[in-house]
Structure formats: C-alpha cells, structure tokens
Amino acid sequence: MLDLMQVRRILLPLGPGSRVADRAIPAAVAIAKFFECGIEILQCVQDPYEVPLQQRDLEPVKRRIRRALPGVDLRVSVIVEPHAPAGIAAAAQHQLPVLATGATVFELDRYVGSVAESVVRLSGQPAVIVGPAADTEHAFTVDRVAVPLDGSTLAESAIPLAVEWANELDVPLHLLSVVPQTPTDADGPAPVDVDYLRETAASVEGAIQPVTWHMMSSDNTAAALAEAAEDALLVLHTHGRTGLARIAVGSVATDVIRVARRAVVLARPELAEATGGDGAKHAAGAES
C-alpha cells in the first residue's frame, strides 16, 4: 500500500468529455499542493485514433491546473484501454489516485459496487474519491479524519490508514458507529456498544492525539455517517458488516460517497475475506 510520506505524484483520471470526472480537479490540485508533488492526468480511450484528439482536448485542463498550481510537475497520459478501471488501477501502483464518481452502482464479475470501488479493488491502493454531493472546491478542506466501525476486524483494519492520514494532515481522529433503530435479526451480528468505541479509541491514542468517538442510531447508515462526518475526511473500506452493510444494493462505501460533502479515502482491506469479530452487545447512544 502507498505510504503517504512517499507520495510523489497525484493520478488524476479524466474521462473524455466527462463533467463528473472534472469535479476531481480542485481536490487533486489541493492534495498536490499539500504534498508538494506532481500531477499526472490520465485518460483511457477505446481506439488509438482517439489519442491525439484527447491530448488536444486536455490542453484547457492543463492550463487550468497550471493557473491554480504554478510550477507543478504536470504530465499527461492518454492510453488505449477499453476497460478504464483496469487502466487506472495499473497506473495507480505508485501514485495516489484522486477521482470523481457519480457513485453509480454496477455489477462486475458478481461484485456490485461503483467504478471507484473497482479501481481500488483492482489496484490494491487507496484512492481519494470525490462524490456527486461533495463541495468540489472544498472537498479536501477537512478538520478531522473519521473512520466508521462496526465491531468487525475488517472495519478495524481501516484504522491504521485513518491514523496515517490524520497524522499527515495534523488533525484529530474521529471514530464513528451507527446502531440500527430497527431491531436486528437475533441470529445476525450484534451491534457495538459504547465500551467498544471507548476501548478502541484508547487503543490508538498512542499513535494519534486526540481521538474522539460518536455513536449514532439510524437505519440509514450512509446518511448518518455523512452527516456526522460533514467536515471530515472519511476513510472507508470496500466491505463491511452490520451497520456498514445494511444497504440492500451496493456496498456502504458507494452510498456514503454518494452523499458525502467532503472527499472520501477508499481502500481495499488487506484481508478481503477477513471475518469480523464479535463486537460488543447492547448498543447505547453517546458522544465523547
């Protein structure tokens, strides 16, 4: 996985004529400015004859970026790759991808999710995602880093990446959990409780200060997370369970990205098939 201390270039994938993809430009510029690194614009096309046309069409984007970030090391790559997520994933191996998405759900090889999630899963690298509801000019203007937890080992595996981002940005770490209002199936996994969040916060205080936490009650997990982390950089994994996996279509990551007002860091779990822990029982709402 890419070390934030070693970020040398931002990968900015843009689609031919895509206004959705263009919404990632301000965030890419802001992140490149923060890390003092270069930017590579990447565009995937279907046929070789499109390459010179798209290189020409990207000139206004290059001028826009240079105006916003004078002196930036800016590169442009137009490649022939019919399956854009695969092309982006290949280029993302040594760069930090920043891309915008409409958070449209689709099915690929029996996996239901968004194009952004497909890129993350194929590359194995985290990516910064700007969703359709994000304030594009301030998508990277955050006052904390937030990570949703549901008591599972899988969700907890996002904590080290969240800590890394919080330390790099010099902002607090905020732990979030959503408890369903509707009673859950007795045979299903138990929701977490206050003690779990408190103990988890205490366990990471040696790596980051300060650490805060907040427990909410809602049947709309994505909306609750987005509202609680309105000014935060959310760090999500592409899978989850209990409160992180109650949405019927697609993963919670897609649904959070769809409504988040700030950028979201999306990562693939190191152990994609990891099973969650038991968590804690008897949820109760509270806030530190």
Protein model, in words:
- With 288 residues, the chain is an alpha/beta fold.
- The chain folds into two domains: 4-131, Rossmann fold (3-Layer(aba) Sandwich), CATH 3.40.50.620; 142-287, Rossmann fold.
- 32% of the residues lie in helices and 23% in strands.
- The protein is built from eleven helices and 13 strands.
- It has helices spanning 19-22, 25-35, 50-57, 59-68, 84-91, 115-123, 153-156, 159-169, 194-204, 221-228, 252-259; strands spanning 9-13, 38-45, 74-80, 96-100, 106-108, 111-113, 127-130, 144-148, 173-179, 211-217, 232-237, 264-267, 286-287.
- The strands form two sheets. It has an eleven-stranded mixed beta sheet with strand order 3-2-1-4-7-12-11-8-9-10-13, sandwiched between helices. It has a two-stranded antiparallel sheet with strand order 5-6.
